[in-house]
Amino acid sequence: MSDVYAARRARLRDRCSAAGDAAALVSRPANVRYLAGGTPPGAVLLLGPGPDGDMLYCPRPPADDDAGGRRIDEHLRLTVLSHTTGDPAIAAAGTFGSSAAGTLAVEEHHLTVARHRAIGSVAPRLRLTDLGGAVEQQRIVKDEEEIACLRIAAEIADQALGELLESILVGRTERHLALELERRLVDHGADGPAFPTAVATGPNSGRCGHHPSDRRVEEGDFLSVSLGADYRGYRCLIGRTFVIGTSPADWQIELYELVFAAQRAGREALVPSAGYREVDHATRHPLEAAGHGEGLAPRTGHGVGLEIDEDPQLAPAAMGKLDACVPVTVGPGVHLPGRGGVRIDDTLVVRPEADGGPELLTITTKELLAL
Fold first, then answer.
1. Cβ-contact 266, 290 below 8 angstroms
2. Dist. CA 24–CA 107, nearest whole Å
3. Count of alpha carbons within 13 angstroms of residue 209, beta-carbon side
4. Which residue of 25, 197, 279, 317 could cross-link 227, Cys pair, CB 3.0 to 4.6 Å?
């Protein structure tokens, strides 16, 4: 893996060199992990003019679990601050600025104003520029090892959800079911949940980002669940909706079939070179045509990886086109106030048609099950 991280840093170094930056200071934790193999709390990565200048600054000695199941790249030099109150970003800039001049690219979207000013004060010879989302853009296309981690995360989520569906649900609260799902994720090998698990019943079902409450599951309810596993830092998402009882109502069947058709259209649109907004439109259009456009979420999917919500964004105004080996979610939903609703989410990897088209990672059935 050391060669992988070195290659990632080399790509970023080439980008910085082309922009005229002498070095880069990476502080966003997910970006540090992507480039260094691990993220000790508070650590920052100084990307020097050459590979020998790459250094990881840490506020304390890294622990064995700081890399989340991976080893920090052994090719990186490590500097541990001598006192616990020091800021690694300021220390890195000060050290580099004392021996070099020119420009230092920093992640302005991550740094606070106070931190940015402090970096400038300890390195007055350096001109600070904005690295922008260079690392985030580099992270969009995944290598096969990253995809393998996402595949395992999806398998874990599928297992946890499948076991829940085999248990008795009536009378249990949303909060209790969410906690049970998160426990099952860990039991099956996850480092933890990829995000707070959402369980919504009855009139709460179908809501995007619903926080589990003490409402109990009742016969005739829609039950919508969104969960994901974190495996070695890589995070997936699955969302499903079920009916509690033996026979769904006609309105529930109609709504479910509509959302299912929209989700299928979005999945089928996931081909290399498809525009982000084109995928969103394919997913959104069936719901808008059925009169549900006003209450739809501002996007119908997004990228996943070291974060559960990363680029690309599948939204009406999103610019850009998909590449192969980009993992994304497709998750339309409709919520009818006072009645409930349906959400169906999958994590997929964009693949060319020659390789079979989009690879579905989350495989729990999308059939409308009556539990």
1. no
2. 9
3. 4
4. 197
Model-level pTM? 0.94
DSSP string, 179-207: HHHHHHHHHTT-SEESS--EEEEGGGTT-
pLDDT digits (tens, 9 = 90+) for 257-291: 999 999 999 999 999 999 999 999 999 999 999 99
Q: What is the largest CA-CA distance in the chain?
A: 73
By DSSP bridging, strand 327-330 and strand 126-130 are unpaired
Please, are residues 325 and 313 in contact by the beta-carbon 8 Å criterion?
no
Q: Contact, 22 vs 53, CB < 8 A?
A: no
Indicate the DSSP class of residue 169: -
Classified as helix, coil or strand, 152 is helix
Q: What's the CA gap between 335 and 296, in Å, rounded?
A: 8
Rounded to 10°, the helix 29-36/2-18 angle is: 120
pLDDT, tens digit (0-9, with 9 covering 90-100), for 24-47? 999 999 999 999 998 889 999 999
Residue 341, beta-bridge partner list: 335
- Cα–Cα dist 317/276, whole Å: 9
Enumerate long-range contacts of 350-355, CB under 8 Å, 24 or more apart: 350/270, 350/271, 350/272, 350/322, 350/323, 350/324, 350/325, 350/326, 351/272, 351/324, 351/325, 352/271, 352/272, 352/324, 353/271, 355/324
pLDDT of residue 370: 93
Residue reference for tokens 């690295």: 131
Q: 301: Cβ–Cβ under 8 A, 6 or more apart, which residues?
A: 266, 279, 280, 283, 314, 328, 329, 330, 331
Which token pair is 284?
Answer: 């959104």
Cβ neighbours around 358 below 10 Å, total: 24
Cis peptide, bond prior to residue 312, ω within 30 of zero: yes
Q: What per-residue string of b and e applies to 189-220 under the rule 16 or more CB within 10 Å gives b?
A: ebbebbbebbbbbbbbbbbbebebeebbbeee
